[in-house]
UniProtKB/TrEMBL annotation:
Belongs to the TTC38 family. This is Tetratricopeptide repeat protein 38. The keyword Ion transport does not apply. Signal peptide: none annotated. The lineage of its organism: Bacteria, Pseudomonadati, Pseudomonadota, Betaproteobacteria, Burkholderiales. SUPFAM superfamilies: TPR-like.
Length: 279
């Protein structure tokens, strides 16, 4: 991706930010979010307050991704501040704020509608795109996942993580050749793209390419550093599935012990992965 000016995020989207510390934290959020990296959370973990509406909306996003019983209550003050200051935001930022507000309010279909609008009007807002895909996945709307990524594809082909998002959308729609092509394109551009690894693992497992899939995941596993807990445990989970299907149960259990359980024990996604692997 090219160097960006202080007036834009690292994907070239104009920003309303005025706080210099927030520039760095927003870059961490945007870059970390689309790459499934833990640095996305720096925005919430750094003791720095900025009332900027986009910063507040991104903080609300992080609170909601906790997927905990109190996630909505924790996110609400952030999204309320974002809405209160939305008049100073750019049109892209205002739509993102509205989409997160719909999520906090429990109106997931409205959130998806807004993310789809965003993908058409501001196709390089890949944070919005990835969040929209998350909602579509949770509703079982596989065509929606793909539709979001396809809208951005002509405008963000230089971003490797876009191709990973495309790959998983294709795979969920059972378009395996397109999925593999997109995943391999992402990996050729950025070897450390865990979402593309994940999509290709889906393809190989679906097609029964067990030995090849295991070798691939073992090869790229060295790049699974600095990821959020879901992504790192989930990719090791996929590696363990290949081992199980190959009859190598003891090795799969060792992967479980070392990599799939214990990263963030109170996170629901990590819990689900660990329990399902033992089932």
């Amino acid at each position: 991706m090219p160097q960006h000016s202080p007036a834009t995020d690292l994907l070239g989207n104009p920003l309303s930010l005025t706080d210099s510390t927030s520039w760095r934290l927003v870059d961490d959020f945007v870059g970390g979010f689309i790459a499934c990296e833990a640095r996305a959370a720096n925005l919430a973990l750094t003791p720095h307050f900025d009332p900027d509406p986009l910063v507040q909306a991104y903080c609300a996003t992080l609170q909601m991704f906790a997927e905990s019983a109190d996630a909505v209550a924790n996110a609400r003050p952030f999204i309320q501040r974002a809405q209160a200051g939305a008049a100073q935001a750019t049109p892209r930022e205002r739509r993102y704020i509205a989409a997160v507000a719909a999520w906090v309010a429990g109106d997931i279909r409205e959130a998806i509608r807004l993310h789809e609008e965003q993908a058409r009007e501001f196709p390089r807002d890949l944070v919005s795109l990835k969040l929209g895909q998350y909602h579509c996945f949770n509703l079982g709307d596989c065509p929606g996942m793909l539709r979001l990524a396809l809208a951005a594809a002509p405008h963000a082909a230089d971003v490797p993580y876009l191709h990973g998002m495309l790959a998983f959308g294709y795979e969920q729609c059972h378009l395996m050749r397109e999925a593999e092509t997109s995943a391999r394109r992402a990996i050729a551009m950025e070897r450390k793209d865990p979402w593309a690894h994940h999509a290709l693992a889906h393809v190989m497992l679906t097609e029964g390419r067990l030995t090849e899939g295991l070798a691939f995941m073992e090869d790229v596993s060295e790049t699974w550093i600095g990821l959020n807990s879901f992504m790192v445990t989930h990719n090791w989970w996929h590696l363990a599935l290949f081992l199980i299907d190959l009859g190598r149960d003891d090795e799969a259990l060792a992967v479980y012990d070392r990599h799939c359980w214990g990263v963030v024990k109170d996170y629901s996604q990590d819990q689900i992965g660990a329990v399902s692997l033992l089932a």
